[in-house]
Design brief:
The complex is a heterodimer of chains A (112) and B (114). Chain A is mostly beta strands and 112 residues long. Helix content of chain A is 0%, strand content 46%. Chain A has no helices and nine strands. Chain A has a five-stranded mixed beta sheet, with no helix packed on it. Chain A has a four-stranded antiparallel beta sheet with strand order 2-7-6-5, with no helix packed on it. With 114 residues, chain B is an all-beta fold. Helices cover 0% and strands 48% of the residues of chain B. The termini of chain B are far apart. Classes of the chains: A mainly beta (112), B mainly beta (114).
C-alpha cells in the first residue's frame, strides 16, 4: 500500500478555509484516496473519498491533480468543532484487500 | 441501528489478567475489523473478518491476541496475560462490500493495564 506524508499539525482560526495536503508519490493505478477525521476518545469518521479531479460533499472537498501524487482536503469556513486529527489514506476502495493503513495524521487546531 | 457498538468503553486490569472486548457491527455489514491505537499514533490494523471467516490475522501483535466472530455478527477480541504495553484504545470497524463510503468505526475500548 502506498505510503502517505502529511503535516503533523496545522493551526487555523474560525471562519477560515483550511487546506491539508497529503503526498502519496507511489500511489497505484487502482488506489483511491480517502480522508478520515478523528476526535479525542472516538473512532475515526469517514469524510471523503476520491480517485481523480475533484470530489465535494456536504463536509469537505478533495482535490486530486492529474498525476495523483498528492491530494488536498479542503474544509470551508472551519469552526472550533473541526479541531481534530485528519488522516489521509491511499489504497483500494473500502480496503478491499482487508485493511486500511493509517499514518499519524494531521492535528488541526481551530482557534476562536 | 445506531452504528458500531463497543463494550466496555473503559477497562482497567492488572498485569497478567485476561481481558475480552466485544464489538457489535452495523447489522447489514459483513466485514468487521479490529484496530489498536496508542497515544499520538494512527490506528494500527490487527485483524478482520468477512462474515465468520477471519481472513487476515498475521498482524495480531502476538499469540496472546485472538479474535472471534462465531456467527458472523458480533466479534470478540481477547488479550491473554496482559502486559503494560497492551494499554491502548482498541477500535472496531465494519463495512459492507463495495462502495465509496468507507468504514464505520466504533468509539473504542480504552484498556489500561496496571
Amino acid at each position: 500500500l502506498a505510503k502517505t506524508t502529511q503535516p503533523i499539525s496545522m493551526d487555523s482560526y474560525e471562519g477560515q478555509e483550511v487546506n491539508i495536503t497529503c503526498s502519496h508519490n507511489n500511489i497505484a493505478t487502482n488506489d483511491y484516496i480517502t480522508w478520515y477525521q478523528q476526535f479525542p476518545s472516538q473512532g475515526p469518521r469517514f469524510i471523503i473519498q476520491g480517485y481523480k479531479t475533484k470530489v465535494t460533499n456536504e463536509v469537505a472537498s478533495l482535490f486530486i491533480p492529474a498525476d495523483r501524487k498528492s491530494s488536498t482536503l479542503s474544509l470551508p469556513r472551519v469552526s472550533l468543532s473541526d479541531t481534530a486529527v485528519y488522516y489521509c489514506l491511499v489504497g483500494p476502495p473500502r480496503g478491499s484487500q482487508g485493511n486500511l493503513i493509517f499514518g499519524k495524521g494531521t492535528k488541526l487546531s481551530v482557534k476562536p | 441501528d445506531t452504528g458500531v457498538s463497543q463494550n466496555p468503553r473503559h477497562k482497567i486490569t492488572k498485569r497478567g489478567q485476561n481481558v475480552t472486548f466485544r464489538c457489535d457491527p452495523i447489522s447489514e455489514h459483513n466485514r468487521l475489523y479490529w484496530y489498536r491505537q496508542t497515544l499520538g499514533q494512527g490506528p494500527e490494523f490487527l485483524t478482520y473478518f468477512q462474515n465468520e471467516a477471519q481472513l487476515e490475522k498475521s498482524r495480531l501483535l502476538s499469540d496472546r491476541f485472538s479474535a472471534e466472530r462465531p456467527k458472523g455478527s458480533f466479534s470478540t477480541l481477547e488479550i491473554q496475560r496482559t502486559e503494560q504495553g497492551d494499554s491502548a484504545m482498541y477500535l472496531c470497524a465494519s463495512s459492507q462490500g463495495q462502495g465509496p463510503y468507507g468504514y464505520t468505526f466504533g468509539s473504542g475500548t480504552r484498556l489500561t493495564v496496571v
